[in-house]
Write the C-alpha cells for this entry.
Amino acid sequence: MVIVGCAVAVLAAALYFHKPSKPTKPLAQHTAHPVPSASAPSAGDVSGFTLIKVGSPGQVGSSGPVTLDTLGVSTKALPNVQAEAFPEQPVAVRGGAAVIEGGTAYLISGVNTPPVNLGPADHLFPAATNAFVGVYRAGSGGQSPTVQMVAVTGSVTSSPSSTFPAGWQPVAQASTGIVISKSQNGNLALALWQPSTTPGGTVLKQWGPARSVIDVSGNEVAWLDASGCDPQGECPLHITSLSTFADAIAHPPPGYTGFLAAGAFSPENAGSLAMLVYDASSGFAQARLALVQTTTATAAADWVATLLPQSEVTPGNDIPGHVAWTPDGARILFAGGSGPIEEFALGDTQSFQTTAQASYAFTLY
C-alpha cells in the first residue's frame, strides 16, 4: 500500500543493455529455489496463498482485469470483472480481498465464488483487523464524505458511517485512529484522525510534507519525506509511532541515499519492512529489494536496511513498483513497471521470477 503525492520524481530511464536472465519459478513449482544455508531462517511456501492482481504491467488509473493466481495451482482472470487499478489497491481481508468496480465494493474470495456486494465505495483502505475493510464514500449532492469499517465476515458487525473531513483521503486504520492524507503543494500532508460525535471527527496530529505513504502496521506508519530526495526518486524513510509520535529515519543500505516509493511492513513482524531502492551500477536502471529492520520494533529504534541478494526488477518511470508479503511473513513478492512479479523467500540467496506479470496493484491472502 503506497499513496504517492502529485509531484513524483521521474526515475532515470533504463539503458538498453541486455539484462541477464534469471531463473523462472512457475507459481506451481518450488524445487528451483537454491538451498538456504544452514543458518538461514526456514521459510514457508507460496502454495496455499492466492495472489490477486488488478490491471496490466505499468497501468495507472482507469479499470483493469482482476486475476487470481491460486499459487501452486492455477492462474485465472475473473470473468466480467473490471476493478479500479492503481492508485486504488485490492485490500486483503479474511478469506479474500476487496476491490472496487463501478463505484461498488466487492469481496473476491475465489474464481468459482461470486463476488459479494459490500455496498457503495469510492476508495478502500485496510482496517486494523482483516474482518473489516475501510470504505470511503465521497458524498454528492451537498452531502459530506463518510468512512465506514465494513464487515466482510458474519462474525462481526459493520461500524456506523462517520462524517469525514473534506479534502482528505483515508490511508489505513491504525490502533489509535485512521491515517489520512491530502494533496498539498504537490506533496502530501498526513494526519492521524479519529471519528467522533463532532462533525468531521478529530485530527489528533498532523505532519509532513511527505512524498508518499508506504504502509501502516499496528501503531506505526512508514512514509517518505518530501525533502532530501535524489533525482532517481530515493527519499528519506520515516517510521513514526502513532501513539507517541516518536520518529526515526531509517538508514539506507551503504551507498544509497534513500528509498523508492514502494514497500510494505511484514504482516508477522512489525520490525521488518521490505522496500525498493534505485540502482544503476550494472549499466541499466534497477529497483533492488531491501529489508529494513529493527530489533525493538518501535519507531524510536534504529532501523537499518540491508540489500537482499540478487533481487531486482526494472522500475517504472513515475511509479517504481509494488511490494507485498505472503500472509505468513515468509516471502516477499515485488514488481517493477514491466516484466514478471518476483518472489524472494527469506533465507534464500536470490529472488525468482513468477509466472505472474507485473502490476502496481496486487496483494495476497
Observations:
- Residues 7-44 have pLDDT under 50 and may be disordered.
- The CA atoms of residues 51 and 364 lie 4 Å apart.
- DSSP finds no helices and 28 strands in the chain.
- The longest strand covers residues 202-217.
